[in-house]
Amino acid sequence: MRVADLQLTESIHSGAVVPVRDDLLANYQRIWHHVGAPGTWWTGRERVAIAAEVRRARDCALCAERKAALSPYAVPGEHEAADLPVAAVEMVHRITTDNQRLSRRFHDDAIAGGLTQEQFVETLGVTINVISADVFCLALSIPLPPLPEAQPGEPSRHRPVGPFTTEAWVPMLGQPSGPDADLWEGFVPNVMRAMSLVPDEVRNLRARIAPEFVANEHDLLAARSLTRPQMEFISARVSALNECFY
Hints:
Order of helices and strands: HHHHHHHEEHHH
Distance between the termini: 39 Å
Number of helices: 10
Structural class: mainly alpha
Largest sheet: 2 strands, antiparallel
Shape: globular
Number of domains: 2
Number of strands: 2
């Protein structure tokens, strides 16, 4: 077992206020592996740097000032960037601290700042993985584990074969084919298609949702300790509290 796995396992088992299922523990170990590994467009070092910015954002004075303002664009300023482009750092901080007010301008500014649409999607994928893992720990009063170690290697730079649709900020696959035919079959909601420009982020999202929610989103009879309607009720309530416009 890797050092990061041991740290995560020990943190959860020693600090959790309720028992934690083994599949959830394995899920968060897998998330940490995914974050630290070379991605499609970012290296492992850059992906860990994205993860570090998620945690920095929570105590960021500029982010707090912007969140309190009528518009985040009313507060000038720029985040420091060490291992990442400034546009990527800005993106991570906005997603972490003020995601209710993201708009098309948020996307356009990131692209104008030098990010490719593929990097935009992968940055989103890494960011929400770290937020998910950290919120899980915070909800159970578990100290946040150290970030994963960056794994060596180069990004794959794999871009899926279209056709793409353009109804969203970034291109989304219409129907996966070729090496990406495993992403989904038939109709899937846009929330699942949103990261299809970087197929590995979709695969990771589906794998992460399975133990957190249900393995098959079309299975309306799925149940754990809660029934599927109870899960949906809680999900809808959390979405409302988070002002999720989707």
